[in-house]
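Protein modeling request. Please complete all fields; requests missing the sequence field cannot be processed.
Requester role: graduate student
Desired output: 3D structure, token encoding
Chains: 1
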Amino acid sequence: MQSLNLLILYYSRNGATRQLAELIAEGVETIPQANAILRTVPAISTVCEATESSVPTSGSPYVEQADLANCDGLALGSPTRFGNMAAPLKYFLDATVASWLSGALEGKPACVFTSSGSLHGGQESTLLSMMLPLMHHGMVLMGLPYSESSLHHTQSGGTPYGVSHYAGSNGTIALSADEKTLAIAQGKRLALLAKKIKFAPEN
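Delivered output (203 residues):
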């Protein structure tokens, strides 16, 4: 039986985006045949010197270009930085020209997720910023529909563009029940769409 590999690629500074990634992975793995592969990117410096070892001391392994080619779908996550994705994730994406030229991600489903320190800190614009390179890669973008009831009553994070989290200015606010529910739902939806695409009968 064929399996599905769903890449959950994220950058997390204080742990909240990582927690969302882990919940999305949990949702992915509720679908038969679907495997979640968690990967991260190293921090970078504004003065360009190396800031991280070549192997992370804990948590998810660093992503490699081969992970893009080998995945059947992608969830991309970043903390909000002035309404945009964080520089380490953008730095990695800027180096994916070979994957773009080869069409490694073309036709595969993708979704995005974020965490911010303030409730109106640019979550939605950050999610949209992460969608742009995925569109250039020819991916099939997927959001969260309002059939997910938590979107109707959440008082923390959560958007139709992708799950989000409000972590507070010191990053200590725990994920709410709604945020957790939406993250798991997003992973499940990603795996289901990947399954439909990969195992669709030939036209």
